[in-house]
Amino acid sequence: MMIIKLGGSALTIKDATEPTIDEVNLDRIAEELSYYSDDMVIVHGAGSYGHIHAKKYAIGDKITNAQENLYKIEGLSRTQASVQLLNYIVVTKLQQRGIPAIGVKPSSFIITENKRIAVCDTGIIERYINEGFVPVLYGDAVLDLNDDIKFAILSGDQIITYFANALKADKVILSSDVDGIYTDNPKTNPDAKLIDIVTKDTQLSLTENEDRADVTGGMAGKINELLELAENGIESLIINAETPGNLKKAVSGKEVKGTLIK
Ligand code: ADP
Known about the structure:
Order of helices and strands: EHHEHHEEEHEEEHEEHEHE
Structural class: alpha/beta
Bound molecules: adenosine-5'-diphosphate
Helix content: 25-40%
Number of helices: 8
Oligomer: single chain
């Protein structure tokens, strides 16, 4: 069973001031994924469909009065609707390429506690896989058990970690808009070098992507999730979804350039 993450930065124009799809990339990505041969779960990031709302409404911050509470309620509903729209667009595109994609809304069956998944029935996803579907989950805005914050942003990366553990995934692939993990942010540092293998002992310089309005921790957040997965014996590979052919190779079990987290 393979879990594959489609980074929000590859599916959407992440720096846009309003939610914007990267049409060309999405179409190619869907075509490449149609070569899958094994059971597969897809998780996609929210990109500009999530981060703009999540940041504006500061979802996950402490709620201190009734007015803030109302504002957060508005924020949660708007963020959910926005990422659900992205999921609909992605799922429709996958279906057009012959993939039996089924969109599953994470906030309808997952609750966090202090921003980490606490309630989650994976049974529904397992059933869809067993019936031959390709479930498609995504980064979402969810209910949180901590009454101080009430709501949280659940990143696609955390969903990956949770489901890879719960479903004992054989393969975990994360695709983004860079070739893997570099010694520094390759978008801002031209001298940054690609790292083949990252372990918990690797020294890294990871920017939190504040300039990119990423509320889920960018590459730093991703690596922390994946190192946790590695602790449980599940390796993952970060690859570039913007390089044509990479996702096709990945879902066909062929070798792809990237960073292995182990
Ligand atoms: P996605 O939305 O694809 O899941 P993010 O946008 O959260 O991914 O993270 C990918 C981005 O992280 C890259 O576009 C890159 O600019 C940034 N980044 C920061 N530090 C690093 C690093 N050391 N190696 C690779 N990318 C990095």
